[in-house]
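so i finally got all the pieces together for this one. its two components total, 1103 residues if u count the protein bits. some of the lines might not be protein, just check the labels. i wanna see the whole assembly predicted at once instead of chain by chain like last time, that was a mess tbh
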Amino acid sequence: MTQVASGQEPLRYLTEEPFYQPVGNELGVFMAAWGKRLPVMLKGPTGCGKTRFLEHMAWRLKRPLITVACHEDLTSSDLVGRFLIEGEETVWQDGPLTRAVREGAICYLDEIVEARTDTTVVIHPLTDHRRHLPIDKLGMEIGAHPDFLLVISYNPGYQTVLKDLKPSTKQRFVGMNFQYPPSALEKQIVMREAGLDAERAEKLVQAAAKARNLKDQGLQEVTSTRALVYAGTLMAAGLEPMEAVAAAIIHPQTDDPELAAALTEIFQTFFG
Amino acid sequence: MSAATEEILEHLDAVSFVAGRDARAALPAVLPLGETAALRFLETGRDLFFYDREAGKALFHATADLVQAFGGLDPWLAQARIFLTQRGTFRAAVGFFEQAATVCKQYGLDGEKIWFEEGAAWIPLHVDSAAAYFRMPVARLFGGLPAKDLQVLLAPAREFAKDRLGLASYLEGAVKVRALCGLAGVSHWAARGRDVLAAGRVRGEAWFRLESDESRAFLLEVLPGFRLGPHKRLFALLLQAWTGLYLPMEEGDWSAEGGRSFLETDGRSLFVPAVMPDREEAMLAFYHLGAHLAFGSYEEAAIQSLFREIGMEHPPLDADQRVTWRPLFARFGQDLLRFQLIFDILEDLRVDLAMEREMPGYLQRILAAAERCGPPPGSTAAAYWQEALVLTRQAQSHNLPQDLAVLASPTAGILDAFRLAMARYAETSLPPLQLAERAAAFLPGHSPNAARPVYPRRQKGAEGAEMDAGGNLGAAGHQEKPREAPQAAEGNDPDLEIPPEDIQGTGGRVGVGIPLPAKVHGSGRGVQGPKGGWPYREWDYRQGKYKENWARVHERKLRERDEVRAVEIAAQYQGTLQRLKKALQAQKPTRMAPLRRQKEGEEPDLDAAVQFVVERRAGQSPKANIYRQRRPLQRDTAVLLLADLSTSIMAEAGETGIRVVDRLQAAMLLFGEALLEVGDPFALYGFASKYHQEVLLYPIKRFDEPFDARARAILGGLSGRLATRMGAAIRHSVRQLQNSPAQRRLLLLLSDGRPADYDDGGDPRYLQEDTRMAVREALEQGVHCFCISLDPRGGEYLPLVFGNGHYLVLPHLDQLPQRLPEIYLRLRGQG
């Protein structure tokens, strides 16, 4: 029964460099944390580049990246692993976390607050000097591969009031704060990612800077860099600017007609 | 001079010295027309003088102008004889002589004929009406329209004469209505007025004088243009997006005077007119005013520098601590408006240039709007309008005159504009103008900058000052009303012991901006609080440590109940409630979630079954929890709603006449009904405080009590009292929540201002820091706090106290009842 299930696909290494435009010294901070194998917590609003950053770092460090998008029904056994039946045998299948621990991957738990609280308990021993993962069902503990790194992301927003991470959990991580990049960089990002010309990219970024002032006014999330890239992509694909903005930015962001009117007016000023 | 002429003059001399003198003075203007003409003139003059001394005098005084304007004596001299037909026409005659020349010059002989005939027709009917007509300044009477439109304007009035309604009453209103709604609006208004007049004379008069609410309401209804009321939020959002400012909006002065309505500010609130010509102009007005606010027109340091410039060390403040602008312009005496306008043009230019840097195409929009509406009638206002337009055009093409180039610099301030205005004023060719003409002188979206006294704004980034100086935070947008009689509560409720005058004055604040005596009674020293209660610690940021057992919380029952009010509210919000309930019911099926690994259930849980088999084979003895159950998901969230019941909730929000407490009652009722539907355990508490020894918690519904008629009646009778010591209230609520069995615990705070109490020494930061610590303690104990605030300035301190994402500012009080349950449902997570 302790046989490990065969036929699992090998871990994926990123072969092409994912584009990431550093804003501050986040590369330096991450490298330092990596050097000491300290777990990292990426904080920041939706679509500001947390996941992309991590992909980029995984590529740089030439480590495989295992991403787990956490959801409400995610239990610790989904992370750690479970028994399966194969023929007359029972086999143990590693969960994504266990695989990363064994094989020295970077394990990225995206939006960890969404997961059930028992998952956070599982990761605790991995986050301090012990660096091991207890697997109750196997009655064993596995020590982490020297290259294993745990990264979680966390969006301190409106919806997470009841799901906030416990301070004791947060304190186990090196925190990295992500914000939307400054205009000049954001413009570069939009140009590069969306394949958009400088003029329209500039307008998108300027308008977004204004639209972001509307935080606290019923917008749960403000216009993200990702939304700008989407809008830019649609424009580059030949859509009229305001159509692209409506489709990629305004409609997804709000159902409130007045907010939508305000956003339209703002973007219209630049693209009108 | 013929003998006949001499004879008349001597006759006049004999009767009155004044008459002879005035006639002789007038004669030179007439003599060139010939002897016969002079005779005719003197005869008419004499007749009028004998008929009525004042009328004659007026004729002689106006003669020179009249002859010049008409090029002779016709037809005005003949017209003048109409005043001989009735007694008491002198007032009409005086008006006629004073204005006939102007009418003739502006509207020609035909126009003058119409003007005269319209008035003359009233002489046999009602002399006073004729007087009112002829005495009305022609510019107002004609309103810049052709003379024949005058007939249209006056047509309805003849009919009203039969009902003994004088022209005076009608004309005043009609001219205003015409200015607002055009001639078509006048006939509409007059037709409605006829019915009103038929219903009662007094009511009718009030209608035509535009003095009654019904006539004002009617006007607002028919007013052409863009109504701002329904779009206030949109404008607030745009203003916030472009300038980062959020200001409360109040109803602007609406007058039936016609002309233009302006968006104004007092530095804290925006005063929004009911109607503006179109959406674009309204939007430009918001942007422009936002530019003034964002780029320092009303900033404290800038205003001080202005007053230093004219040699005043401190700007003069009125009773409300607002800066009054008057002294700045006083030195210009009669010519004050001219300077003010030049200053306005330059300052507008400065902030518009700054706005253009933020918002490309902004100047172009102003220019386009100006071209659409064209220059105003009347040469005086138009001169200023053109000047502003030309400068804006030059600014847009980066082609400003050398001396004004400094205004385009990002570092330019209002002082630069002021100095330039002084320089330009010294050599201006712009004409002097009257107050009445001023409104037309502004480009679309622009308005007088010094229209209202302002509360100086603190510079952004001077964060320390914002948080610590106190005094002028939180008070905006709320009328400070004397508090109402306190509500009775069991026990020795301290409301009854504080004399009302204690909370009047200046100094610290309680709740939202209710002034307190500057001198605090020794932090409550010597004030013996009631015995008992739960002691709680309080954080003192100045010492960086807790004061143990400092605050004492007492639970009190609210005795005042109002079943009727509760029923009223329920009826008023029936629609909202039904929608809410429907939404909750519709949601229920989706909220059925499978419970995994159950002992029994409708279907097997595959994962669990596999695990069961595996573990059995492995020789273990697992529990047979291999079923799935479908059952409404037990979110297992307990919520305690803690409402701030301080005095400030009795205040009216803005000018609406709606008190905060009205919506608070409704919100808590709806919240209760929604929670009943949802089935989550909940409790409702209110709190208030008076000094640290008496923090009062009023349980309206505890966790273990039902939400029944009693609780509803208490909500119906809710009223405000005392102050807001939030920290202790939070700590006590957390204790209540901990007794609840739920896993997730939410403390929902409902407030309309920052924490404050009588003994906080006027230091807003003290209780704010304590509240912050209380929120942190709550989190450590597994209770999440979320604050819903009605304070438009909540954004300044709520992030510090509750943390980002743990608060929400509701800009509109009216939304509270509907939003409160929604916010809760969103917080607890759906589905």
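Strands of chain A lie at 40-43, 65-69, 81-86, 89-94, 106-110, 132-135, 140-143, 149-154, 174-177.
The mean pLDDT of chain A is 86.
anyway lmk what u think
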